[in-house]
């Protein structure tokens, strides 16, 4: 009798360690020819629901999506000491289009997602010199990207837990391509006219500057999204994610 009770407890614990997809998420069949079309729709539908967290699945709210801090990528060089913290990113759940491709041979997922507007609020600290002027400042950066294409590439490995198959992100890369952007730096210079002029100048060269920021800090950004993805994947077995696997 004791053995039966222990076995029942084990079964309950085993079942509690894994979850099915949320009932509002779409499930796709790997065996069907339109799998990637279904996956594109499923991903857009899932992300659009993250205006609120889904705590049971380890999914935070994407409005805003929070990144506590970013670190400089190896090999990057900057002209002054700078520190960016408390990233608050809004607009990720408002999606114009999504194209996703899952390659089950090399376990790679590529997602191309377009958003009409993304807003970035970031706390900054900088120390150095610019225009022969010493700078030791801190404040808020506000950046807005319009019709911005996010391309995310996630590489997975498969593993087994409690007899069930799961996926885990082992590397990720995210690039962003906006049609246009605006930047505004608060308190960078004591002179407001100079401060406003600098923000306008940065906005004119926004694509180039945004590209440099991606190169310098993109790995931290990708890790933040990979961590969220892994929280979800650790709770939902592969056979619950997709049919026919």
Report on this structure.
With 245 residues, the protein is α+β, with helices and mostly antiparallel strands. Helices cover 30% and strands 40% of the residues. The protein is built from 5 helices and 9 strands; from the N terminus they run H-E-H-E-E-E-E-E-E-E-H-H-H-E. The chain has helices spanning 2-16, 35-48, 192-204, 206-233, 238-241; strands at residues 28-29, 65-69, 81-90, 97-103, 108-130, 133-161, 164-177, 180-185, 242-243. The strands form 2 sheets. Strands 2, 3, 4, 5, 6, 7 and 8 form a 7-stranded antiparallel sheet that branches. Strands 1-9 form a two-stranded parallel sheet. Strand 5 (108-130) and strand 6 form a beta hairpin. The longest helix is centred in the last third of the chain and has 28 residues, at 206-233. The radius of gyration is 22 Å and the shape is elongated. Residues 4-16 have low confidence and may be disordered.
Summarize this structure briefly.
The protein is α+β, with helices and mostly antiparallel strands and 245 residues long.
- How many strands? 9
How far do the termini sit from each other? 37 Å
What kind of sheet is the major sheet? 7 strands, antiparallel
- Portion of residues in beta strands equals 35-45%
Q: How much helix, percentage-wise, in residues?
A: 25-40%
Which term fits the overall shape? Answer: elongated
Low-pLDDT segments, ≥5 res: 4-16
Q: Please compute the radius of gyration using only Cα atoms.
A: 22 Å
Q: Classify the secondary structure makeup into a structural class.
A: alpha+beta
Number of helices: 5
Whole-number mean pLDDT? 88
Query: SSE order, as H and E?
Result: HEHEEEEEEEHHHE
